[in-house]
Amino acid sequence: MWSYESEQARLQELLELEILNDEGQGIAYDDHSDTDQSDEEEDRVEQQNENSDTEQDISDDEEMGEESPNSRLSFYGKDKVTRWRKVVSHPKTRKTRQMNIVKRLPGSSLTTRNLREPLEIWEYFFNDEILDIIVECTNEYIESVRNNFMRKRDATPTNLIEIRAFIGVIYMAGVYHANRLNAEDLWSNDGSGVEIFRLAMSLQRFRFLIRCLRFDSKETRAMRRETDKLAPIRNVFDRFVANCQNGFHHSEFVTVDEMLAGFRGKCSFRQYIPSKPNKYGLKILALCDAKLFYTSMINFASFKTSMWLQGLRFLFGR
Q1: What number is the average pLDDT over the span 72-88?
Q2: How far apart are CA 61 and CA 55, in angstroms?
Q3: How far is CA 4 from CA 1, 8, 96, 143, 252, in A?
Q4: From CA 58, how far away is CA 61, in angstroms rounded?
Q5: Interval 263-290 mean pLDDT
Q6: pLDDT tens for residues 154-213?
Q7: φ, ψ dihedrals at 200, nearest 5°
Q8: Is the model's pLDDT at 235 over the cut of 50?
Q9: In whole angstroms, how far apart are CA 93 and each of 15, 84, 89, 90, 97?
Q10: Is pLDDT at 284 greater than 60 in this prediction?
Q11: Where does the pLDDT of residue 60 fall: very low under 50, low under 70, confident under 90, or very high at 90 and above?
């Protein structure tokens, strides 16, 4: 029966046999063609801004004409010690390691396989459990500031339906690229505004909710912040990441990368990186599927913490 491992082993044997045949025949190459090729490669390397040490070593070996059979199948890393194979070898005498066996197909899990509409997918990631936390914590803060209003109706508690409408209004503001517009322009009723904003809620109510929106209890925040810088959003953040992990199965190709989310607000671990498009922001570590382009785990990187340590904690969930 045909299998992936047997096919790879067969190709590896054919490749090694071809190399041995070339060496035994002693094929002669034209010196002028090698010189022209090496000159073209040197010109191409000069045009690149960043060249690795491996590329430089390979070009030097070609100029000296000292190419061995092993150099065709592998190359050395920047540390001049680590040796990388160009072709994956699958010997017949060795079994696949248990940790490398793919036990499930990559793609959507059972909980998300039947989701088709965009609203259904959004409701999976931001389920009622997350929204109930937002409603509860927001109402707790509204009760603490209600005495500051002369009219009690200006500080009425919110509910799940209104929070959904509030999030929808923020989405629509992004659709209209209104992040730099005044809110009064969006709610304007002189024909220049957007009607859907006025139908969702009043401008006064929107400003009140965006001021009172909370994701945790303010009474216990100070104690939790001593050990966790994400204490104000930890409950919601962890549940969202858990939904991302449970809704999708990775393929065998994953990568850990970082990004800088633009943010200029008040934050203890906000960073400044002048080489990024958004120079100020929050650095995020993300575990992504390199084949299916799905992000299943994210974590914020602190400026005072080593990136290497942050990556280990991120990968092992500690």
Answers
A1: 79
A2: 10
A3: 10, 6, 11, 64, 15
A4: 5
A5: 85
A6: 889 999 999 999 999 999 999 988 878 888 889 988 888 888 999 999 999 999 999 999
A7: -75, -50
A8: yes
A9: 18, 21, 11, 9, 12
A10: yes
A11: very low
Q: Residue 268 corresponds to which tokens in the numbers above?
A: 């203890």
Instruction: Judge whether 78 and 52 are in contact, CB under 8 Å.
Output: yes
Token pair for 152: 């009690």
Contact 282, 276 (CB under 8 A): no
Distance separating alpha carbons of residues 298 and 301, to the nearest angstrom: 10
pLDDT-based confidence at residue 297 (cuts at 50, 70, 90): confident
